[in-house]
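Anyone opening a protein record will find just a pair of labelled lines. A complete record is shown below as an example:
=====
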Amino acid sequence: MAVTPGKFNTFLMFKLPSAWLCGVRVRAISATSCTTTVTHRWINQNPFNTMFWAVQGMAAELSTGTMIIDQIRNSGHKISMLVAKNKASFTKKATGKITFVCKDGDKIEKAIRATLETGEGQTFWMQSVGTNKDGVVVSTFDFEWTVRVKN
């Protein structure tokens, strides 16, 4: 069955309701890239009338994790995934619609293959860049993911 943004958004509503309520949505997904969006609203703002950093983090993490979930499902194996570390930088106030794009999907297949061959956990970094409607970068998130075959 093909993965679609709609299926992931339904998954989001049931499994990550806080992200769904804050307006985080998957817009496009392929094996190598994923795009998510979130719009600044009352429910996801901070006291400075901009988007709360954690909401940006949810959208950024989803743009990386969605591809991992998809590739694990496609592998046919039971593999766990976890964020081990993350780094973020904020360069402009996040207002309006923010789009996060991750283009690091090629790293996932290598890590899954290595964990299946060795039985050892594998780590890899993925980056998601958030831009506003004018294409200006508002934040950049880096996530160190780990994948490991479940026993």
Summary: Helices lie at 5-15, 17-22, 53-75, 106-118.
